[in-house]
């Protein structure tokens, strides 16, 4: 599996650290209750197929949202997390 | 048919014409008392103990593929009870006791071999941690012996004891640990459940769960609608997709774990050896292949196959620990889908929907749990109350923060186990 870094292009998987589902970008507001925060921290869609997840590119320090497939291991795209959050 | 040495002998004399399929291939009925989603090890043992312990037999086990085709046939077959935290400790202890009686219980040769398991350590700090774990195991009523370097050498003379990075300081020996033939466990439970009247329905994929007014009514499947008073999910790595049919999200991420086997060799590795610092463990199957594995690939995946970096890491760890393995040729590698929970411990519980139960979160340790998981899940489904040995496996522990069981002490969040 080769992942896509927006800065460095397609790179070997070994250069990246997996950081979990991109659901963590949808951070709840401070006003919501404990239950919403507990769900945010622990519950996952865990899709079989298309997914978006967070990877850290160790050499260049970029946080990346990778669009890939969990069944085929195909990698479609990589975007900077800072761009996705806008 | 009851299996025995005499039966093997007489069949041998009469051309082996008397062996018959050991479970039926029934068509699904339109209604059952209990439907189990998933015909893996845990689903089959649950069905067996529902029938055996609770007298409930109007049960269907729905399996998307075939019996023995999922994780129960893809694991590395290790059976042990070396857990230290309350909750895990009594559960796996119970499971090992069930293993020790499993063959006569099922009248099926599951080839359970208590060859002893050795966890190696490589520093004083690790020795202290393993001494503590060993004490916890002994307190639980199980067995543990702390071996020093020479003690390990007597068991495992082939290790590289003076490895410059990981010199062997000693090991924790769990004599009752060992292996079993995983396919036979699935087949034995399947045969036992079928014999008691449970319908094992293969090639039957659940496509929906029907819920009315907060009460489960049944399931929709690739072979028609099946009504049921109770529905129990037990789908391991696929738990997320099954729960989604009931509108639920689970605290589970599915990851890939790889395993490897070499060509068949004469007996050379007589124990289960685990090299935690290298995330490597190994045993030798009765057929002669060295069966070994490492850590997760560490990204969510349903591919049932891994990538090359982890293969490379596992081979390096193997060569570090036992250089002799370099002469063996790897025959095959494969992957299994692990249902990883945030704290690394499982879930056996009711859901917020009446009559719908969940069993998941087995991480990379589901095989040894097969008997006790089925026992406890059957108890929960039949009585509505958690079994004594599994009462801490609550679904809501991540929400409340009470009863987190982080056996590795790395923290209770995704991607740490």
Q: How far apart lie the N and C ends of chain A? A: 28 Å
The portion of residues assigned to helices of chain A is: 10-25%
CATH topology category name of chain A: Folate-binding fold
Number of strands of chain A: 6
Low-confidence stretches of chain A: none
Total helix count of chain B?
11
The largest sheet of chain A is:
4 strands, antiparallel
- The number of domains of chain A is 1
CATH superfamily of chain A: Folate-binding superfamily
Q: What's the helix-strand series of chain A?
A: EEEHEEEH
Percentage of residues in strands of chain A: 35-45%
- What percentage of the residues of chain B does DSSP assign to strands (E)? 25-35%
- What is the N-to-C succession of helices and strands of chain B? HEHEEHHEHEHEEHEEEEHEEEEHEEEHH
Major beta sheet of chain B, specifics? 8 strands, mixed
CATH architecture of chain A: 2-Layer Sandwich
What is the distance, rounded to the nearest whole angstrom, between the alpha carbons of the first and last residues of chain B?
A: 44 Å
Oligomer: heterodimer
Mean pLDDT of chain B: 97
> What low-confidence regions of chain B span 5 or more consecutive residues with pLDDT below 50?
none
- The count of β-strands of chain B is 18
């Amino acid at each position: 599996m080769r992942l896509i870094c927006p800065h460095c292009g397609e790179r070997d998987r070994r250069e990246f650290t997996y950081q979990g589902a991109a659901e963590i970008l949808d951070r709840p507001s401070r006003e919501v209750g404990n239950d919403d925060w507990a769900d945010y921290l622990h519950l996952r869609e865990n899709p079989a197929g298309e997914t978006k997840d967070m990877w850290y590119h160790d050499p260049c320090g970029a946080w990346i949202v990778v669009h890939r497939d969990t069944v085929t291991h195909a990698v479609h795209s990589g975007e900077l997390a800072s761009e996705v959050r806008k | 048919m009851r299996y025995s040495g005499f039966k093997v002998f007489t069949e041998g004399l009469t051309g082996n014409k008397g062996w018959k399929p050991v479970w039926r291939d029934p068509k699904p009925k339109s209604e059952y008392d209990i439907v189990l989603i998933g015909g893996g090890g845990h689903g089959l043992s649950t069905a067996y103990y529902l029938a055996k312990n609770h007298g409930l037999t109007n049960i269907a086990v729905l399996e998307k593929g075939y019996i023995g085709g999922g994780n129960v046939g893809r694991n590395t077959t290790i059976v042990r009870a070396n857990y230290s935290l309350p909750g895990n400790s009594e559960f796996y202890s119970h499971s090992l006791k069930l293993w020790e009686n499993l063959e006569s219980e099922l009248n099926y040769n599951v080839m359970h071999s208590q060859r002893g398991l050795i966890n190696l350590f490589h520093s004083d700090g690790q020795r202290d941690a393993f001494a503590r774990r060993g004490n916890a195991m002994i307190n639980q009523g199980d067995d543990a012996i702390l071996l020093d370097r020479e003690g390990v050498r007597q068991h495992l003379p082939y290790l590289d004891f003076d490895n410059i990075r990981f010199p062997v300081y000693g090991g924790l020996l769990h004599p009752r640990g060992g292996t079993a033939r995983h396919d036979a466990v699935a087949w034995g439970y399947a045969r036992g459940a079928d014999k008691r009247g449970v319908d094992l329905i293969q090639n039957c994929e659940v496509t929906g769960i029907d819920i009315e007014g907060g009460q489960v009514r049944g399931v929709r499947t690739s072979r028609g609608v099946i009504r049921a008073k109770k529905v129990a999910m037990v789908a391991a790595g696929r738990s997320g997709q099954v729960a989604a049919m009931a509108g639920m999200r689970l605290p589970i991420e599915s990851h890939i774990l790889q395993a490897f086997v070499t060509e068949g060799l004469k007996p050379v590795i007589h124990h289960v050896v685990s090299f935690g610092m290298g995330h490597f463990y190994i045993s030798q199957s009765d057929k002669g292949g060295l069966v070994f594995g490492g850590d997760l690939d560490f990204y969510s995946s349903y591919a049932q196959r891994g990538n090359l970096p982890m293969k490379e890491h596992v081979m390096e760890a193997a060569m570090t620990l036992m250089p002799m393995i370099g002469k063996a040729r790897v025959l095959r590698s494969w992957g299994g889908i692990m249902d990883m929970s945030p704290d690394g411990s499982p879930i056996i519980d009711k859901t917020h929907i009446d009559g719908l139960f969940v069993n998941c979160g087995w991480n990379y340790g589901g095989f040894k749990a097969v008997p006790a998981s089925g026992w406890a899940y059957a108890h929960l489904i039949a009585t509505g109350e958690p079994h004594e040995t599994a009462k801490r496996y609550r679904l809501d522990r991540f929400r409340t923060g009470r009863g987190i069981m982080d056996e590795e002490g790395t923290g209770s969040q995704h991607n740490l186990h």
